[in-house]
Design brief:
Number of strands: 21
Helix content: 40-55%
Strand content: 15-25%
Strand order of the largest sheet: 14-21-20-15-19-16-18-17
Radius of gyration: 53 Å
Shape: elongated
Structural class: alpha/beta
Length: about 775
Amino acid sequence: MAQEILKSNEDEIDLKQLLAILYRHRYAIILFTLAGLIISAIYAYFKPDIYQANTTVEVAVNKRYVFGGAQSGVASALMGEGSNSLYTEMEIIKSRFVAEKALKKVDMGHHYYISKHLKKHELYKDSPFTVEMTKGFGVPFTLEPIDKNRYRLKAKLDKKNYSGVGYYGREIHTRDFVLVVRRKPGKEMTESEYEFVVDNPDTLPDKVRGGVNDALVSKFANLIKITFTDTVPLRDKEFVNALTDAYLQQNIERRTQEAEKTLEFINSQLKTLAENLKVSAANLEKFQRKTKTIDVDEKIKRISEQLGDYEAKLSTLRLQEDILNALVKKVKKGKKLETLTLAGIGIEDKSLASIVDALREAVLKKKELLRDYTSAYPEVKKLVSRIEQLRQIIIQSVGNLYRSVKEREKFLDKQMEKFRKELASLPEDQRNFLALQRRFASNEKFYSYLMEKKTETEIKKASTVSANRIIDRAVHPGTHIKPKRSLIVMVGLILGLILGISYAFLKDFFNDKILNDEDVDSVTEVPKLGIVPHFNAETDNLVVLDKPKSAAAEAFRSIRTNLLFMNPREEGQVIAVTSTIGGEGKSTLSTNLGAIISLAGKRVIILNLDMRKPTLHKFFKVPNKKGMSNLLSGHAKLIDVVQQTAYENLDVISSGPVPPNPSELIGGVILPEAIKVLRRHYDVVLLDTPPIGLVTDARLIMKMADVTVYVLRAGYSRKPFLRTLNELYAQNGKQGMGYILNDFDPSKHGYGYGYGYGYGYGYGYGHGYGYGYYHEDDK
């Protein structure tokens, strides 16, 4: 049927047939739809509510917290200040480090439940008890209060189940778990049963990180929206706020740590300078006492001061040289490259800074991918290759800077050498005095400078605040974001309907059963004698006699008319009734057809030639001791096997005892002679033949008949049977044959056509619907 829908005469979909398929499988479609509706409703009901809370944070991008001067920049460089890009900050927000800080403020690891309306409800802070656990994480426990002091604890463990009585405040120590249950003051144990689970604190940070998401609010603003999803709305709000606070706090701690590193560096320098200053002051004082006061003219003083300035610049360059060496070593080691920075080292090189930023981004991206993939993942391999390329570029660029610093050092050395030569012409006492004085002044200036920077750093440390700030804090989520229960139910309903319709078309597509007359007419030219509607053959096997006004009786009247017009004869008409296999209603149809013809005043005899499975005698409740097998074997005369029925004008010849050779008996000479005799005494001779698809007997019998009626049963006969029908029709010269569709049920096989009383189910010969009528003798 489904194939035929796609192969209509105009290659258009036959809407009537399509609707027929849907109608035929309506109960299956309804069942699938209801199943989809019920399953989705159950799923939606038991799926826990998911809430979402969010905060918005403003991030200060690319701000350098430098505490001033080359020395403080050196401290920052040594500390390895990280990138402040938005991407880096987003990774920090989702880091385990920040999650651990937030978990110290919000309890995400203890889950307490009660059951209500077949669902679990988490209590969070409303739990009347708390659990302290050191072993047994992840195991679901059931607690049943006994009284104010005791409770029963149950647990499903790997090897066995646990059940025991415990006391509040006392430790329960077993091989599988160790815990203490404590009651909350003022909280009553109102439920008969509670459940609780404690998460492993080692894996909890990673677990909660899975619910954290952050995204840029806009590409034009340095705003990050932090969201967290949870099944408890209050805990959801508290955790996302705690996470945001932890992020800001770590930012402050990082800045404070930078200040501490800077102070540590300054203090170490001050300690050395203090010793040097003390020694230089003592040496100068000792020299002055020894040589008395030495006067130096103004020109010499200026040369000495300029030489001192050059010496300070040379010290700065050597410090930068040390920093560049440390930077190269860090890049070559390849560890903690995400903290690499050029901030504060006194070198302004935008191209190198951009390369360092690119290296940091690549390292962070690689770490992000390694959370979900292995090092063999193609994108990870690409990033590893890019990181290596950037490292080599940085090493080369720093080498160039290093050579530039060395050139400047050489220049300063040359200038200083000139000044030293000028001072060399002075008397030895003056030279020594100027050297001591220069060294003392240099140490004094540098010491004062460091003390000034120390004071500035201590002030900054005390007043350090985060460069980032919270724009919007999380509020209590009013409604859940998931599940969308109405949507789930609607989707389930639609999926069920789609599955039901798909099932209907698939079943119809693979179904090779004949369902209605169109299945037959589309592949054969054999005339249609009529359609017999479904009736209960067990209780109404002679429906035309038991229920003469029924729709089935009307159908047989229509078939009777078609048969009598099909091959009218002056002598008796011989009609053979056959089918492909057993079970198609051939015998039932033969008996009712004979009965309906007899009601028209015609003398009818029915011969049961299906001697392998005799049934005719059961319909008319006549004995089967003698019959066709006796007649054809020569053990009885024709007059001896004819039996009158309880109905006027209707006789039968039963099959008789089952013979061992029915085919030989039918192929003998007695049957044709017997039919000739019966033609002279009866108006219609009905031959109930064996199934033609199982034995060859029916083909022999058909040659003796004027009309062959081929019986097909709706919903039972298969479409390949029609090949046999076409073959027989062709062999018969395309005449003297017609088919009857038996057991047709419009609710199962048809298109929902209705039939009214007085109008037969039968079809007119060769076309459309026929009208049944009552013969005057039927009254």
